[in-house]
Structure formats: structure tokens, C-alpha cells
């Protein structure tokens, strides 16, 4: 049975990997968004990967290793010791968002308890904090210089 797997590729190799895998007859998807790049003498709209360094590959478990024959492929993304699988419905939603131009930007956060950060918005903007707890859409921060623990419910957790 074919499943969507997440492949990590070298930075800047997303389009090349997609092209090479398609030539091998594999079903692959790399969500691209349009972005305006500004140089000193001109502006240009270019298509860039929405999720940098990752592409999605639909294949069977037996076909997974064929991807490593392509230059630029690094590894599969794993979750709990097994290759991460993206559900068909999630892929459909991702494709719809990209096709309907509903995505402006993607922010990544690899926060975990103990991570030091600086608050970017709100009344505590500019303050140093340490992540104490993350769960659902809530994050608890320790503001050491104020002696406070702040728990925030976020509309969008990034």
C-alpha cells in the first residue's frame, strides 16, 4: 500500500530531487509558493519550497530505498522510531492551501522545555524567557528577570 513519506533533502535541492524522482516514475510533491525577491537592480517573483529541505514521496514500504539513488536525498523523517507517514487527507489539505494561495509564510519552532527565547510581540516584547511547558496551543514561559511564570494560549502555535 502506498503512503506519503517525508524525505529530507539538501538545502536548495528540493526541485532537483522532485525532478529526478519523477523521472524514476515515483509520485512526489514539493509545495511551492511564489515569493518576491529583491536585488539591487530588479525585483523578481520566484517559486520557492514552502517547507525548506523537505519533499513528500508517495510509495510503498519496499520502494522507499529507491529514493536514496537520487543526489541530494539525505534521509527520511522519523517519528517514534518509524518513518513518518503523512495521511492522505493532510496531503490533500496542504495541496489545496498551496493551489489556492492561502499560505503566505511558514514559521518553524523547535521549542522544548529549557529553550531560551525572546518574546517578540505583546506587552512583554523584548524580554528574555525560558520555555517551561508546551502542550496543545499553550506555552508556559519563565521570565527570570521579573520573577514571573507566564502561560499563554496561542491562536497559532509556531
Automatic annotation (TrEMBL):
Record field: transmembrane: none
UniProt-recorded name of the protein: Transcription antitermination factor NusG
Signal peptide from the UniProt entry: none
CDD domains, A to Z: NGN_SP_UpxY
Gene3D superfamilies: NusG, N-terminal domain
Alphabetically ordered keywords of this record: Transcription, Transcription antitermination, Transcription regulation
Domain of life: Bacteria
NusG-like N-terminal domain: residues covered: 1-98
Organism: Pseudozobellia thermophila
Lineage: Bacteria, Pseudomonadati, Bacteroidota, Flavobacteriia, Flavobacteriales
Pfam families named among the record's database cross-references: NusG (PF02357)
Gene Ontology biological-process annotations: DNA-templated transcription elongation; transcription antitermination
InterPro entries membership: NGN-like_dom (IPR006645), NGN_dom_sf (IPR036735), NusG-like (IPR043425)
Amino acid at each position: 500500500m502506498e503512503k506519503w513519506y517525508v524525505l529530507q533533502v539538501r538545502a536548495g535541492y528540493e526541485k532537483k530531487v522532485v525532478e529526478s524522482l519523477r523521472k524514476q516514475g515515483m509520485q512526489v510533491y514539493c509545495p511551492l509558493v511564489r515569493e518576491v525577491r529583491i536585488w539591487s537592480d530588479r525585483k523578481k517573483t520566484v517559486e520557492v519550497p514552502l517547507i525548506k529541505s523537505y519533499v513528500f514521496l508517495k510509495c510503498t514500504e519496499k520502494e522507499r530505498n529507491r529514493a536514496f539513488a537520487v543526489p541530494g536525498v539525505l534521509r527520511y523523517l522519523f517519528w517514534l522510531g518509524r518513518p513518518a507517514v503523512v495521511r492522505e487527507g493532510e496531503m490533500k489539505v496542504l495541496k489545496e492551501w498551496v493551489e489556492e494561495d492561502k499560505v503566505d509564510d511558514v514559521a518553524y519552532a523547535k521549542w522544548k522545555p529549557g529553550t531560551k527565547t525572546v518574546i517578540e510581540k505583546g506587552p512583554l516584547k523584548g524580554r528574555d524567557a525560558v520555555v517551561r511547558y508546551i502542550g496543545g496551543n499553550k506555552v508556559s514561559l519563565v521570565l527570570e528577570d521579573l520573577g514571573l511564570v507566564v502561560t499563554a494560549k496561542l491562536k497559532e502555535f509556531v
